[in-house]
Design brief:
Layout lengths: L1 H16 L7 H23 L2 H24 L2 H20 L2 H21 L10 E8 L7 E4 L5 E3 L4 E3 L1 E3 L6 E10 L5 E8 L2 E8 L9 E4 L4 E5 L20 H20 L4
Antiparallel strand pairs: 1-6, 1-10, 2-4, 2-7, 3-6, 5-6, 7-8, 9-10
Helix pairs in contact: 1-5, 2-5, 2-6, 3-4
């Protein structure tokens, strides 16, 4: 159910943003973050009462000044009145937040779905070596798996591999790995992984712009296949954060969009 919807969204967003894929990954990420911040800022401007929010900000600044003066005089009654007024102003501001949040929901979902399928990894290029792995049940250890030889692909370590045990993760499983290189040929190809009487297909794309989902699960077969694509790291600097379940591209996106949003709100006088 989700896969067809994701495919539809990605196709629609490719029509709108596919031109971005001509640029290096760092440039793509910066443009997407800037565009996101601009959209969120403009939506806020169009869906909130900017006059009210401006008056609220000015009133809060004045009340903060009065609060400091009341504290200096130790005037408890004045402190209580000013704090109550600040609470009422905060409630007025809070009531303005619902409409921009709702209006932003659809573009955020569309952009996030597209970015997760286009910006997370560096796509494969012709002549670039890559590792392809297949994960099997632990009972398959010691047996043979192979990839059907295909035009436009070369296998540095051969098409046939023995399944070995991998006990570094739980539960333990069997794994086979191939080192492949794509030669000139069709942009979209299918790797045929064969194990016993089973054959599984794993699509790979080698146009240097987009990529198929690197991890493929095969419901009819007890195995998972994976192309080890390099994750996008802004300027090669943004690392994985172990305690955050976010990939490096998303961490970089958040690092960019938060200050950009504050900056654009200042420049465009959005409250």
């Amino acid at each position: 159910m989700l896969a067809p919807l994701t495919h539809l969204i990605v196709g629609f967003m490719d029509f709108l943003l596919g031109w971005l894929l001509r640029f290096p990954s760092d440039v793509q990420l910066i443009i997407v973050a800037f565009g996101s911040a601009l959209i969120l800022t403009l939506i806020r401007r169009w869906t909130t009462d900017q006059g009210l929010l401006q008056r609220c900000r000015a009133d809060k600044a004045q009340l903060q000044k009065l609060l400091r003066e009341a504290k200096a005089r130790a005037d408890r009654d004045a402190l209580q009145r000013h704090r109550a007024t600040l609470g009422m102003i905060a409630m007025k501001q809070f009531r303005q937040e619902g409409r921009p949040l709702l209006a932003s929901l659809l573009p955020i979902v569309l952009l996030a779905t597209w970015a997760m399928n286009r910006l997370e990894f560096h796509p494969l290029k012709i002549g670039e070596p890559f590792q392809f792995t297949a994960t099997f049940p632990i009972s398959a250890v010691g047996k043979i798996a192979h990839i059907a030889p295909a035009d436009g692909l070369t296998a540095e370590t051969g098409w046939i591999q023995e399944i070995t045990a991998d006990t570094t993760s739980s539960p333990a499983h069997g794994i086979a790995a191939w080192h492949l290189t794509a030669q000139p040929g069709p942009a979209l190809r299918q790797l045929q992984v064969r194990f016993g009487k089973q054959t599984c297909m794993h699509p790979i794309r080698t146009d240097g712009r987009t990529y198929e989902p690197p991890i493929q699960t095969h419901d009819t077969h007890p195995l998972t296949t994976d192309i080890r694509l390099a994750p996008v790291r802004l300027f090669g600097l943004v690392p994985d954060v172990p305690w955050l379940p976010f990939p490096p591209w998303l961490i970089a996106y958040l690092i960019l969009i938060i200050p950009l949003t504050f900056l654009l709100k200042k420049v465009l006088c959005v409250y």
